[in-house]
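Researcher: We plan to redesign the surface later, but first we want a full-length starting point. Tokens attached.
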């Protein structure tokens, strides 16, 4: 999990944060990644495994979890008062992945992000004691944008699992058949589509970025890092000519830290 954490587009638990906060964020990350593993990579019946995780998540709230990562989550949900209905959405999203392979419209994709991504930001706000409705709404914009950017990076990988997270209406608008999603390099049509989705995600990041200015101290540091990672990912996709098939697109560390500093100082308002 620590290796996966270092490969994320954004800093999950910066060393600038106090150790207690880092432990809470790492416990959440471990849970999120465990659920993703159960839904995306685990052998056997993934639906049954997700059901088992749902049962053990309930146990975590009772202090009786059996899985080590759920046991590690127990003090976090207790001390940070994270509602069960927030975290269980991640399991629901992975259940949906077992049934739904295509999203006809962008609105339907956003509904999926409300399960698969937005609860992550809400849980983080609980860790910092700032899970207030207006701030959660800003966080939802950021988290959905980060999810869309990740989908743009992982087009070929997702298609190998017979999943497409580019809205079908957009594929049709740009004239992209599904076969183009696994080519050696992206066609002109597909690059145009990826640019369209990246630009849309960038606007969502900008809409959510004022959240940074509403926070102070360690919360501001952490959330600025998440937004910075998203902006750096969008920049990396642009630098790759919006072709995630030809190269493995990852945000540059220097660009991430530059964005991080600007966000922290200016509060996401520029």
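Model: Full-length starting sequence:
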């Amino acid at each position: 999990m620590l290796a996966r954490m270092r490969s994320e587009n954004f800093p999950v638990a910066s060393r600038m944060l106090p150790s207690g906060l880092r432990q809470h964020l790492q416990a959440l990350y471990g849970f999120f990644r465990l659920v993703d593993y159960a839904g995306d990579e685990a052998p056997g019946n993934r639906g049954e495994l997700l059901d088992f995780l749902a049962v053990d998540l309930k146990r975590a709230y009772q202090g009786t979890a059996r899985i080590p990562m759920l046991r590690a989550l127990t003090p976090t949900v207790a001390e940070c008062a994270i509602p069960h209905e927030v975290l269980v959405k991640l399991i629901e999203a992975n259940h949906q992945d077992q049934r739904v392979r295509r999203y006809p419209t962008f609105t339907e994709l956003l509904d999926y992000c409300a399960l698969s991504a937005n609860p992550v930001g809400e849980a983080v706000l609980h860790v910092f004691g700032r899970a207030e409705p207006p701030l959660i709404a800003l966080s939802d914009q950021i988290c959905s944008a980060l999810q869309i950017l990740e989908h743009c990076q992982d087009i070929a990988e997702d298609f190998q699992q017979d999943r497409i997270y580019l809205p079908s209406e957009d594929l049709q608008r740009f004239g992209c058949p599904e076969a183009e999603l696994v080519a050696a390099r992206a066609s002109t049509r597909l690059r145009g589509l990826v640019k369209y989705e990246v630009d849309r995600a960038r606007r969502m990041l900008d809409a959510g970025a004022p959240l940074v200015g509403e926070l102070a101290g360690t919360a501001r540091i952490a959330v600025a890092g998440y937004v910075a990672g998203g902006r750096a990912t969008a920049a990396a996709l642009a630098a790759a000519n919006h072709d995630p098939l030809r190269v493995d697109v990852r945000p540059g560390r220097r660009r991430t830290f530059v964005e991080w500093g600007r966000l922290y100082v200016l509060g996401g308002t520029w």
